[in-house]
Amino acid sequence: QVQLVESGGGLVQAGGSLRLSCAAALRPFSSYVMGWFRQAPGKEREFVASFSGSDRFIAYGESVKGRFTISGDSAKNTVTLQMASLKPEDTAVYYCAARPIWNPNFNYWGGGTQVTVSA
Fold it and tell me: Following DSSP, what letter does each residue of 27-40 receive, concatenated?
């Protein structure tokens, strides 16, 4: 059973920064792709970023490119999302997710953490 626990959400003013962390109870870290998704009220879930534990390949959603940075720590089994230049439209529940590298779909999900950006 893979467990993912997010932390670091909160309230921040526009232009500010927040860092989200996800602690992943999975082994080995190198066999998984870790991702961040978000969902705002009334909107579909949106891909934010992903990090491959095997080759450290990184991908970002278009709306966060240049502002968010994802990183992974295989020693601690954590993935971090550093968010900068936050905008009110970044307000959402942010979810950590994981998938085995052979699986195209993320099939493990955390409970989510709220990020609210005030204007």
Answer: S-GGGEEEEEEEE-
d(CA 92, CA 115): 6
Give the integer Cα–Cα distance in Å for 63 and 117. Answer: 15
* Structure confidence by residue, pLDDT tens digits, 70-109: 999 999 999 999 999 999 999 999 999 999 999 999 999 9
Give the span between the Cα atoms of 68 and 60, in whole angstroms.
8
Per-residue pLDDT band for 27 (boundaries 50, 70, 90) equals: confident
47: exposed, middle or buried (C-beta count within 10 Å: 0-12, 13-18, 19+)?
middle
> Distance between CA 27 and CA 59 in Å, rounded?
22
Q: 3-class DSSP state for residue 88?
A: helix
Here the tokens at position 11 are 């309230």
pLDDT at 99: 96
Give whole-number Cα distances, 61 to 24, 49, 80, 110, 115, in Å. Answer: 22, 6, 16, 19, 17
Q: How far apart are CA 67 and CA 73, in angstroms?
A: 20
